[in-house]
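Please produce the structure of this protein holding manganese (II) ion.
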Amino acid sequence: MDPPLDFLKSFESAVDVIKKHITEGNTIHIITHNDADGIASAGIISRTILRSGGLFKTTVEKRLDDVVFNRLAEENPKIIVFTDFGSGYLEKISQSLPNQDIIILDHHLIIGEKPDNIIQINPLNHNIDGSREIAASGVCYLLSKMIDERNKDLAHLGLIGALGDQQDKGNQKSFIGLNIFLEEEAIKNNQLKKKVDLIFYGYETRPIHRAIAYTTFPFIPGLSGREDNCVAFLNNVGIEFKNKEKLRSLSDLNEEEKRLLFSSLSNYMVSQGCDSSSVHNIIGTVYTFEKETPSTPLRDGREYASLLNACARMMRPSIGLSIVLGDRNESIIEAEQVVEEYRRKIGTYLDWVHENNRIKELSNIYVLDAGFEVDENIIGVIASILQGQGILKNTKPIISAANSNDGTTKISARGTDFIINAGLHLGKIMQEAAELCGGSGGGHDIAAGAFILQDNVEDFIRRVNEIVSKQSVR
Ligand SMILES: [Mn+2]
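Below is the modeled complex.
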């Protein structure tokens, strides 16, 4: 399926503007969001400019606010490209940065009318579902290929954001919509191979117990992050994780062993209170990046996305950017250390949530108010994991909150297919509730966020609970 013509046409002015600035030798400033999609997006654009002989400067931001806009206005670059955010801040961007070319490459909720001095590429303007059918990295890939056809070898990188933003919403965790177009291009270029199997990271390359322990989505209580428990689990169900002295990977298991592993894991998850849909999530489409070295975390598309996310969330985005730009030396070693710390942090936070019974159930939402106990950069990941475990009811979204040291609170909201079908749009709910509390919010229907002042958290939660009951058509 090719991208619709009106969508492709919307890229033309951006292509011209970027080419012009490359030719004139101007440094192209890229500002991106601090998650896997943001890093992949900025990486694709940076690599495109680099290949075209241009200059770029890439910075990663948690959010767009006056601090960022004032700094950019002061630097006064000739061109700024916003990737994976921007559509929620059209008016602010236009007013704060009137003197330069502005390009926005985004797939989030568009708030307000687009001012004339901004070029915006957003699938939502073309009846394409930006939450499920293409991520910002996919938009960046399409732009990259239009700047130079030879960049079609970056198609697989365009899918990293889709995996990071959990757009694998098709049958057996496959892609839908325009992501399939990218997938086909990547397969044609021999960059990508797919198959349906157990979904644990490092399917071909990692010892089984480690593959299970290292996987963040789905997060299996007691096994994820716990190599020791995974070894005990395998011993218990009678699956040899060693063949003589060689550790076996999932691809070494025969069909019968795979079935045994699946049914044992399912039974275990059910005993832990997980629902059937989360159990099914351990099987899905595995995306292998064929040109990456088998022993590295970049070989598996989901693991690559998770690694970039870790770099972003642990405030080391430049490591992730170097990797997308092509560094396969120092950056990999550093990234693996960051991932290790990140995994440990997530485990500690989840233990804290469970031990202290921190999830409160209100009439229409679940609430996790973590105060200062969870890093604001990681609260969204925690909300996604809690939501994906299938222990909470799928009829209510989870709204999580973590305080920052600057007096604000980061809110992350995560929904389920059920509540989206019931008519909820979390991005719009975050926008409305945040505005009523003097903050700002937005995002996708199924995953969204907001920033508010710490004093307003209670008020905000109360309003969200109210708006959910109004918006829902249940
Ligand atoms: Mn995104």
